[in-house]
């Protein structure tokens, strides 16, 4: 998934008294990989109307809307991690 940096997120500045670029890049990269794996696992959870219809006629639509909101929030977190990782990559 391609992204453009979100300029509203404060990003770290690499300097002598701060955490090294190598450390931050490694840690954000590892977090991004783990988060992508978690999102994949969540997406693979069975989600079907047969599991909701006994509650009410609208239960599945409500669950579907909630699931969409959860994935929107997960995507926001992923973008946060990706923006940091991309920001920290050394310039070529």
What's the average pLDDT? 91
Global outline:
elongated
Number of domains: 1
Order of helices and strands: HH
Gyration radius, in Å: 18 Å
**Largest sheet entry:** none
Helix content: 55-70%
Tell me the span between the first and last alpha carbons.
21 Å
- Number of helical regions: 2
Strand-residue fraction?
A: under 5%
Low-confidence stretches: none
Write down how many β-strands occur, each being a DSSP E stretch of 2 or more residues: 0
Structure report:
- This protein is mainly α and 92 residues long.
- It has one domain (21-88).
- Helix content is 58%, strand content 0%.
- The longest helix has 30 residues, at 59-88.
- The two termini are 21 Å apart.
- The mean pLDDT is 91.
Compact overview of the structure:
Helix content is 58%, strand content 0%. The protein is an all-alpha fold and 92 residues long.
Q: Helix and strand layout, with pairings?
A:
Blueprint: H1 21-43, H2 59-88
Helix pairs in contact: 1-2
List keywords for this structure.
92 residues; mainly alpha; 2 helices
